[in-house]
Amino acid sequence: MSNSKIESILQKFIDVLRINIFMSDAAGKPVLVPSAEYGWNAIAAELVKEDVLKDFVPDGDYLKYTGPLGCAVYAIPTGQKYLMLGPVFLNKKPQGDLGNLDMDEVRVLNYNGIKHILDLLREVARQTMIFMDNEFLNSLLHLTLSVAQAESGSIMLVNKTTQELTVSVYKDISDKQILNVTRKVGEGIAGLVAQQKVPLIIHETQTNNRIRHLMNNRELKCSLSLPIFDHQNEEEVVGVLNVGTYQDESRLATHTEEVLVRLSKLTTEAFGTK
Question: What's the CATH fold of domain 134-271?
């Protein structure tokens, strides 16, 4: 895969996550930096040092570097190179003199949040993943729910032969079992999204009963479904991404739709690396 293609994919992740992502060589030196935002200037000088990898320590499946003011940079091994993400702060931002670090640029994440992002990036970086890889889909769903601050979600894939949508991965705070549940394209919320190729958002206070009654889980305050398009053919829907919240509907309806639309596009781009 060409550097321009890799850079395009990484830039889409950067735009959605608001975190710097870049490639480094086997020695840890940055070789492909799509963006110089989100705290890059605060760590750039540190990461171009000789033998910078010796300052990284194992952190689960990844490597972690602790930079100025405790900000973290993570490294994902990908053959002869590393995919790096950061800087980020874990759990909270520091207090006091921040020097040249713009705190508004650097995101704060908890451990689970950063792990889901790293897991997803690792799957994308493999480049050999297949479309039905549930490990990849699970990582994508967890990331989506984290960004949306939602408690319920699923990814459904289209069977081109039967024109049915099947739940491949899901997450919900209830014990409901919905794996492998199918819907015809055109039926239900996800079916309408796949047929009409546009996002659909449903509120608890929805006045259009023709739409509201389609929500299977009536306990949800708000749900949002987005089409996932084929990487090579932007007119062909290959799946539907669904998220929902049991809490305040305005959080999902007002602040999240744009981000999730971009995540849908990002999903399409990620599948294009297979």
Answer: Beta-Lactamase (3.30.450)
Neighbours of 161 (CB within 10 A): 6
**If you search the block for the tokens 């989506």, which residue do you land on?**
144
C-alpha 202/C-alpha 200 separation (Å) is 7
Q: In the structure encoding, which two tokens stand for residue 149, read together? A: 């601050």
Contact present, 195 and 185 (Cβ < 8 Å): yes
Where do the domains of the chain lie? Answer: 3-126, 134-271
Task: Work out the angle at residue 183's Cα, subtended by the Cα atoms of residues 163 and 132, and round it to the nearest 5 degrees.
Answer: 65
Cα 4 to Cα 10: distance, rounded to the nearest angstrom? 10
Enter the DSSP assignment of 52.
Answer: G
Task: For 3-126, give the CATH class.
Answer: alpha beta
pLDDT digits (tens, 9 = 90+) for 162-210: 788 988 888 887 666 666 678 889 888 899 999 999 888 887 665 455 5
Say if 3-126 and 134-271 have the same CATH topology. Answer: yes
Report yes or no on whether pTM surpasses 0.85. no
